[in-house]
Amino acid sequence: MQPGNPESLAQPRYEVRPYKPSEAGLIYETLEKPNWATWLAASIETLAKRAEVFPEGQIALWGSDGKPVASLSLNRFSWNGDADSLPTWDELAGDPATYEKTYNSSGNSVGMMSINVRSDIQGGGLTQFIIDSTKQLTEKIGVDNVMGSFRPSQFGQFAKDNPALTMEAYLDMKDHQGMPVDKWIRALHRNGMKMLRIDDGAMIVDDVPREQVEEWRKTHKPEEWTMKGHIWRCGETGFWYVGPKKAMYAESNVWGILDRNGNGNSQDASK
Fold this sequence. Notes:
alpha+beta; 2 domains; ten-stranded mixed β-sheet; 8 helices; 27% helix; 27% strand
């Protein structure tokens, strides 16, 4: 998920530390569940296992009340520098998506897998804080690359009105200041993210009963759903392909790498 514009890093009310497996329930209820669609949210068990597999990579920002206000989930892996060799988000997370089958303790890269900000402070801005915390961690553990299969959060809204819009074309769209139109990609750009390539089929949720999707249509952003034949758009980055009995959710993201010096550079996201 996407926080807003950066705010001052000199905020004494926030403590940055990894969350413990025993705190996974709190992370889920406060951050994961409110920020993700039901079919994409990590379970409490998944969050707890990630904290066992890569403890220092499951970071939370804690308020003075002892509750988390933001979280970041990282996975460590090896990358050979070839953008075409990068895995999908699903492949990097593994099956199950706990990182237990994909984490590489000697990997030269970390993937920013998930960023969540509590709803009451979204827009207050924690992007720079989170990214700087990630860079500090990677320097400490000796990792060369800070990367992510990043989620263009507003693509679904644009595609709703323009069903033929491709992810490539969307990421090439600029606002009046020449910045990416997508607010999350724009925030990352300002913090030194260079786009590498589209992550086609980054997240796939398959073999879902049609009845379940019809129920989610009533409960998850019901005003944002549109249906045209088998394609059901749901207010998320991806869409549902709905058959007579089963359905599949498919979402594409964009792989990007962060400049250690924080200097943003624009680059085509095409493969």
